[in-house]
Amino acid sequence: MASASLHSLLLKTPNNPTNSYSFKNPITLPSQNVSFITPTRSNKPFSITCATHVQDRSTTTSETQSQDRVFNFAAGPATLPENVLKKAESELYNWRGSGMSVMEMSHRGKEFVSIIEKAESDLRSLLNISSDYYVLFLQGGATTQFAAIPLNLCKMDDSVDFIVTGSWGDKAFKEAQKYCKPTVIWSGKSEKYTKVPSFNYLEQNLNAKYLHICANETIQGVEFKNYPTPINKDAILIADMSSNFCSKPVDVSKFGLIYAGAQKNVGPSGVTIVIIRKDLIGNAQDITPVMLDYKIHADNKSLYNTPPCYGIYMCGLVFEDLLNQGGLKQVEKNNIKKAELLYNAIDSSNGFYRCPVEKSVRSLMNVPFTLEKSELEAEFIKEAAKEKMVQLKGHRSVGGMRASIYNAMPYAGVEKLVALMKDFQARHG
């Protein structure tokens, strides 16, 4: 099966006369070996395209993309690795000689059991998850875990602490109010969620059962680069890692529980992954619905009821692909490279583009930015769509633009976005 090689950026100038631009004078961004071309006034239209050549599929990586696909900057459901999609396509009708699709399998049959067991094994390898933790494949999105966590780990009068660095942390806090006594010990709301607090000055509750963070805020683009420690020696750290899960190495042993919706970095929507220390289960509140009881799912190896079978299969293919790339240390290097390119373009624009997030905690996954001339934002998004770059509109609560550059976003996609940003500034700056 053939695929496209890494895109090299070319800017073409067709012959149809109109009021547009030609290109010359390459400019190289700091810390990058990528040249961009500044436009000068011309009477010819332009388009931004990527040249490709065909290579053997065995050498392809997440850096490559076929010409018939868009660059999808959606926050989730998000882009998936092309080679993973191709493999799923080849196995859709008849999974490995079984005579049926994964979508048709009994979730208790040997075929699907082999799929879910390998997915768990590969995830354990990626994150170096010890046998002290259960790995659960659940449903209901990370939002369901906002209730499941306090129901499983607290009594109604127990105290818990929240650091709120964005919209998802705030939602988790509000849901926890129904099942325990949460306290927001720090909130970035007054500063429009643009930073992470210094951990040294947090006033934690001495009796808090856990400290909850959202490791990466998808909407605001704020990411924890290191993690706080609960002051109560018996408390645990809990993290919603939905939008940076498997984007970099994480020391799982620092956490009592990690949870993540799959639809950002590791699979399609419908799968929620929970990694929980084994000694934390078995004490759910009496009102806990059976489907939210971690012990039920752990005892039944995530097969208590029919799980999201095809989604788990897809996650397994992604885990396998991440291992083939060299693991999460290499994945993190790729993500840093992409994020550097985009943030450098924003910061070197002399204020034409702006990212509101404090530089030290900018997300590698979700890059929000605005235009100095906000009235041009709709035009920018429209032009991007014409160039096959989609889903760049910012969240409705924030506005502006947002480029989600998850693991599966090829470097070429960020190159092409930055080329458009340069050209757009030259015409409207």
Automatic annotation (TrEMBL):
It comes from the Eukaryota. It comes from Thalictrum thalictroides (Rue-anemone). Residues 70-417 form the Aminotransferase class V domain. This is Phosphoserine aminotransferase. Pathway: Amino-acid biosynthesis; L-serine biosynthesis; L-serine from 3-phospho-D-glycerate: step 2/3. GO terms for cellular component: chloroplast stroma. The keyword Nucleus does not apply. It catalyses: O-phospho-L-serine + 2-oxoglutarate = 3-phosphooxypyruvate + L-glutamate; 4-(phosphooxy)-L-threonine + 2-oxoglutarate = (R)-3-hydroxy-2-oxo-4-phosphooxybutanoate + L-glutamate. Its EC number is 2.6.1.52. Coiled coil: none annotated. It is an enzyme of class 2 (transferase). Signal peptide: none annotated.
